[in-house]
Amino acid sequence: MALFGFFSKEKKETLDKGLEKSKDSIFNKLARAVVGKDTVDEDVLDELEEILITSDVGVGTTVKIIRRIEARVAADKYTSTGELDKILREEVAALLSENPSVGVTDSFETEHLPKPYVIMVVGVNGVGKTTTIGKLAHQFQQRGRKVVLGAADTFRAAAVAQLKLWGERVGVPVIDHGMNTDPSAVAYDALKKGVEIGADVIIIDTAGRLHTKVNLMNELGKIKRVMQKVLPDAPHEVMLVLDGSTGQNAVIQAREFTKVTDITSLAVTKLDGTAKGGVVVGISDEFQIPVKYIGVGEKMDDLQVFDREEFVDSLFKR
């Protein structure tokens, strides 16, 4: 499924390459599981269950997939191991398609969105949060959108400096008050600036640490309340950035953040070079929150819109 040209041949090749290690890991394990077997029996399904769990799909999601495959095998009576690849691919795609919040989503096409559209970005240090914001700013700008960034991660000097570097690189204004300043004041000024210059999109970076849940909840709550003094319905989106290469750690982080604030979208980074790409399937299924973007490379355009059909195709095709 192509969307606004996102899945050009080049994009698809990047996605295929980015998920190569995950795909190879799954299929190598699957090949070993079916050696010497002609039909999909209980032993093969047990092996498949272990393969999916060790590929970071997650226990709950794996159980759902296995039950679906069991039902198909029972109905067919004789399912060859050669068909297992195809069945697995179909059932993962079907599972994702039944999640109403997951599919082709795109904030780059902003005509139907409030103006300015405010995205508050959350996530722990090291997941690629600031890089994701920079790449988003670049891609919005490439589509003719006017962007303002707010450096509200004021607890880490490197975070402010890094966002300012991205602003210079991409050519978008960055509102900052330096380190150890009030994050909500930065967010307030970023929104004021955005309104003043007629920005289409305002992206607010926030502190990247999981300290106590109460403190995190209070801090994010205060940022929201202060932003609402400028725009009563802000933020329009709260995006959680997760590092896909950490596998189940990413799932744990998602659980923690969803407990303390309303997460409305996910970006899963660093999927290139890891065999843990299956975590996207588990996260999509468990949290019922749209995975909007996935990171499959270092280039600006390697932050891709998540399309479940293209993702499953790349993850499971031979």
TrEMBL record:
This is Signal recognition particle receptor FtsY. Keywords: Cell membrane, Cytoplasm, GTP-binding, Hydrolase, Membrane, Nucleotide-binding, Receptor. GTP binds at residues 123-130, 205-209, 269-272. Part of the signal recognition particle protein translocation system, which is composed of SRP and FtsY. GO terms for molecular function: GTP binding; GTPase activity; signal recognition particle binding. One of its GO terms (cellular component) is cytoplasm. It is a peripheral membrane protein. It holds the Pfam family SRP54. Its main location: membrane.
